[in-house]
Amino acid sequence: MTPDPYDPTVDYYANAVFSERGRCWRMVHDGEGSGRPTFCEEPVEWVGNHNLVGGRQIRVWSCDGHRAGVEQPEHVGHR
Ligand SMILES: [Zn+2]
Fold first, then answer.
1. Most buried residue, 5, 7, 28, 69, by most Cβ within 10 Å?
2. What is the pTM of this model?
3. How far away, in angstroms, is 58 Cα from ligand 1 center?
4. CA–centroid distance, residue 67 to ligand 1 (Å)
5. Which residues surround ligand 1, an ion (CB under 5 A)?
6. How far apart are the CA of 68 and the centre of ligand 1, in A?
7. How far, in Å, are 13, 23, 25, 31 from residue 35 at the CA level?
8. From the CA of 3, how far away is ligand 1's center (Å)?
């Protein structure tokens, strides 16, 4: 197994990603063992780009644990 460089405890759901301002782009399995994906509800820390298969690029927001895969991440400003 290859250790995740950021946070090995944060799981994410396959390749389901989405682009929505202010919301983490990853989906995770819920914590109750049902195996169903749910939205990651961690606070957003990063904004950057993600390259989709086929070369398309989307803007994504990410919590700290899901930063892997975000290109050129910038820290989201906190008020
Ligand atoms: Zn997340």
1. 28
2. 0.70
3. 16
4. 8
5. 24, 26, 40, 42, 63, 66
6. 10
7. 10, 21, 18, 8
8. 17
Domains in the chain: boundaries: 27-74
The alpha carbon of residue 67 and the mean position of all alpha carbons in its chain are separated, in whole angstroms, by 6
Burial of 7 (0-12, 13-18, 19+ CB in 10 A): middle
- Residue 76 alpha carbon to ligand 1 centre in Å: 14
Amino acid code (one letter) for 34: S
C-alpha Rg value of the chain to the nearest Å: 13
Ligand 1 centroid–CA 10 distance in Å is: 8
- Write the pLDDT tens digit of every residue in 10-68: 455 445 677 888 999 998 877 677 777 788 999 999 999 998 878 888 999 999 999 99
The reported pLDDT for the residue numbered 8 is 45
